[in-house]
Specification:
By secondary structure, the chain is an all-alpha fold. The protein has six helices and two strands; from the N terminus they run H-H-H-H-E-H-E-H. The protein has a two-stranded antiparallel ribbon. The relative contact order is 0.07. The chain binds a DNA duplex through helix 4. InterPro entries: HD (IPR001356), HDZip_class_I_plant (IPR045224), Homeobox_CS (IPR017970), Homeodomain-like_sf (IPR009057), Leu_zip_homeo (IPR003106).
Length: about 230
DNA sequence: TGATGTACGTAGGTTACCTCA
DNA sequence: AATGAGGTAACCTACGTACAT
């Protein structure tokens, strides 16, 4: 099967003459295996990372090597392979980490923008009351229509998706409003916002989330901020 | 049946040599 | 020509396993 020429065996023949009892310091004629030998060994390693004793003898014979040389080559090969595998794994983990870090920064900025928008809305809600009216920048369509009582918060362009989400608040939603705004208290959108700490979104807490399902909206079919629509 | 000794294989680390920029 | 870095064959050590006694 494997043809091993004298030329192949020659470069290391002097090395193989070194007996097991010879100290390595005296092994000054160490030679690398030939390309053909390496090729054969690599091929075998690909299919089997460990050699059975019988196979080892056969390979050694075919490649004109000592069985011990074959065994040592496989030992070293396994060690090198494991080392490279660790490097590959590390690279993958590094890439995943960078990806998650980028997502985190993106979400952080998005959250900050939302907090600002909520602050603006909160101010707009408070302002009319202070001025003794409900119609203003935050207009209530039908604000004079107590029966229907459909309160609409008009959104300006800066409101983004919140403008959409805050579209209609009917009086029938008083229960919902109570839940979110507190019993009988005036609406305070900021109460919906977590304290301005990053305890939940800090990297240390990432481990507790499945990143892929972090914002999975498949359950309800619409974004969480659309709870009022 | 459990304890002990021996042989063998492996992983992990190290040494010594070779090659090349 | 000298040299330092990297690759690699060979070795060492510790440990685990199988087997015989």
């Amino acid at each position: 099967m494997l043809e091993c020429t004298k030329e192949m065996a020659e470069p290391f023949s002097s090395a193989t003459e070194v007996t097991a009892t010879t100290k390595k310091k005296k092994n000054k004629n160490k030679r690398r295996f030939s390309d053909e030998q390496i090729k054969s060994l690599e091929s075998m390693f690909k299919s089997e990372t460990r050699l059975e004793p019988r196979m080892k003898l056969q390979v050694a014979k075919e490649l004109s090597l000592q069985p011990r040389q074959v065994a040592i080559w496989f030992q070293n090969k396994r060690a090198r392979w494991k080392s490279k595998q660790l490097q590959r794994d590390y690279s993958i983990l590094q890439a995943n980490h960078d990806n998650l870090a980028a997502k985190y920064e993106s979400l952080k900025k998005e959250r900050q923008a939302l907090v600002i928008q909520l602050q603006k809305l909160n101010d707009l809600i408070k302002k009319p009351k202070e001025e003794g009216q409900y119609c203003g920048q935050v207009t209530a369509t039908n604000c004079n229509d107590g029966d229907k009582g459909e309160t609409t918060v008009k959104s300006d362009s800066s409101m983004g998706r919140w403008g959409h989400s805050l579209g209609v608040l009917s009086d029938d939603n008083s229960e919902i409003k109570t839940d979110y705004f507190g019993l009988g208290e005036e609406p305070n959108l900021m109460s919906m916002v977590d304290p301005a700490d990053d305890s939940v979104t800090s990297p240390e807490d990432w481990r507790s989330f499945e990143s892929d399902g972090l914002f999975d909206q498949s359950n309800c079919g619409y974004p969480w901020w659309d709870i009022w629509s």
